[in-house]
Specification:
Blueprint lengths: L8 H9 L4 H13 L1 H20 L8 H8 L6 H7 L6 H5 L2 H33 L10 H7 L9 E4 L2 E6 L6 E7 L8 E3 L3 E7 L2 E2 L4 E2 L4 E4 L8 E2 L5 E7 L3 E3 L2 H10 L2
Antiparallel strand pairs: 1-2, 2-3, 3-10, 4-11, 5-8, 5-10, 6-7, 6-9
Helix pairs in contact: 1-3, 2-3, 2-8
Bound molecules: zinc ion (ZN).
InterPro entries: Anti-sigma_ChrR, Anti_sigma_zinc_sf, ChrR-like_cupin_dom, RmlC-like_jellyroll, RmlC_Cupin_sf
Pfam families: Cupin_7 (PF12973)
Protein name: Anti-sigma-E factor ChrR
Length: about 260
């Protein structure tokens, strides 16, 4: 996998420090599991962070770094991690602070209840596209752990023109969603308030800034008004994390915004 667009150092440092909102942690953990470059950079930041902690006389468990790295999900360790992490929700979940954790816990409880009825409906709807979705083994381990199954396990909603999204339950402060963009299709023009990270899981998209393929991360701030268009040939599937609601330029998508929670 030749990744050209990486996470920024501030993002990796914040992730190492455990200060990112859960949605961003999930995206960072997922990219890091796909990217040797960022995994190495993160290891360096974790080491520095550990040294800083030791300097300030806060004891750090001897195996803390090893444990942190193990949770990052090196590709060759996926199976082992999948087994050992059975209880832990995900790396992203493990990294969020205690407050966020209990919030996330409460959410997933609520989600479990309300999803029970909705699941069969969502499952039926997504069956048509299921053939073209990545197989569970093709999904990065942190994301697979987080959604607790493959891409048919999440609740897809149509955004029109074949574009679909699935909101993932995360703690407050940022939101995470999966985006499915049919081959050759554009996502409605939108700007941002705050920051939006988009990680390509499958396929590719292009916008005014560049082309983004598997593993690439686009870091968009509120100045970027962009129209991502999926490459022809195969659908593009992305994981996106946003720290504020998107602003769609067109009126109708804006009216739909509260409905879709994006
Ligand atoms: Zn990277």
């Amino acid at each position: 996998m030749s990744i050209r667009h990486h996470l920024s150092d501030p993002l990796l440092i914040a992730y190492a420090a455990g200060t990112l909102p859960e949605a961003f942690s999930l995206l960072v953990a997922t990219h890091v599991s796909m990217c040797d470059t960022c995994r190495a950079a993160l290891a360096a930041f974790e080491t520095v962070g550990g040294a800083v902690l030791q300097d300030s006389a806060v004891p750090l468990a001897e195996d803390a770094l090893a444990a942190a790295m193990a949770r990052l999900g090196a590709p060759e360790k996926r199976e082992a991690i999948a087994k050992s992490d059975a209880g832990a929700k995900s790396d992203a979940g493990a990294k969020s602070d205690a407050g966020a954790k209990s919030d996330a816990g409460a959410k997933s409880d609520a989600g479990a209840k309300s999803d029970a009825g909705a699941k069969s409906d969502a499952g039926a709807k997504s069956d048509a596209g299921a053939k073209r979705l990545p197989k569970p083994g093709d999904l990065p381990a942190p994301l697979l752990d987080y959604i607790g199954g493959d891409l048919t396990a999440v609740k897809w909603r149509s955004l029109g023109m074949g574009v679909r999204q699935a909101i993932l339950p995360t703690s407050k402060g940022a939101s995470a969603r999966l985006l499915y963009i049919p081959a050759g299709q554009a996502v409605p023009d939108h700007g941002h308030r705050g920051t939006e990270l988009t990680l390509v899981l499958q396929g590719a998209f292009r916008d005014a800034t560049d082309r983004f393929g598997p593993g690439d991360v686009e870091i968009a701030d509120e100045d970027l008004q962009h129209i991502p268009v999926a490459d022809a040939g195969e659908p593009c599937i992305c994981l996106a994390a946003t720290d504020a609601p998107l602003r769609f330029s067109a009126l109708i998508p804006r009216l739909l915004q509260p409905l879709f929670r994006i």
